[in-house]
Amino acid sequence: MRSGNPQITLTATAALDPHVPGYVVVPGAVGPVDGDPDAGDETIPVLLARFAGSDAMPLIRRALDNPDITVAAFCGGSLALAMAGLLEGRTATTHVLGIDMLDATGVNAVRARVVDDGDLVSGGGVTSGLDVAIYLLERDFGSHIAHAVEELFEYERRGTTWKSTGQLAA
């Protein structure tokens, strides 16, 4: 798989099977925010749009339809899913620079570090990916596992996870 960084190539070891329970992780991209796409500039919006139009999106759509799969997207990953029309009507977050664009795609965009919308858990900027991962460990496997990973990484999860629950939610 081609990544957003020309120096890094990721080799898939298996195909995404939207029928197998588990997790699908959708990261963002790296690169300049501004530039001239007509001149071939590989800006973050260009990379996200390319991914949004890729063959991965129908598979991710089917994964989102499977209640036994959690899609975890962070940074621009959630924006790419929204650009592909996969998150309309859902609640999510993305990198602060893309939050208005996320909102414009029909997503209930929340400015939070981590947003839990059931089978879709999204995070803000790139370091929010760690918070998403540790949150999912706690949610799905318990606080003992999440705490052990925090200690191993020497990282303490930050912020509150936004959920559509409670008296003032929605």
From TrEMBL:
<dbReference type="InterPro" id="IPR002818">
    <property type="entry name" value="DJ-1/PfpI"/>
</dbReference>
<protein>
    <submittedName>
        <fullName>Glutamine amidotransferase</fullName>
    </submittedName>
</protein>
<keyword id="KW-0315">Glutamine amidotransferase</keyword>
<feature type="domain" description="DJ-1/PfpI">
    <location>
        <begin position="61"/>
        <end position="138"/>
    </location>
</feature>
<dbReference type="GO" id="GO:0006355">
    <property type="term" value="P:regulation of DNA-templated transcription"/>
</dbReference>
<dbReference type="Pfam" id="PF01965">
    <property type="entry name" value="DJ-1_PfpI"/>
</dbReference>
<keyword id="KW-0808">Transferase</keyword>
<dbReference type="GO" id="GO:0016740">
    <property type="term" value="F:transferase activity"/>
</dbReference>
<dbReference type="InterPro" id="IPR052158">
    <property type="entry name" value="INH-QAR"/>
</dbReference>
<dbReference type="InterPro" id="IPR029062">
    <property type="entry name" value="Class_I_gatase-like"/>
</dbReference>
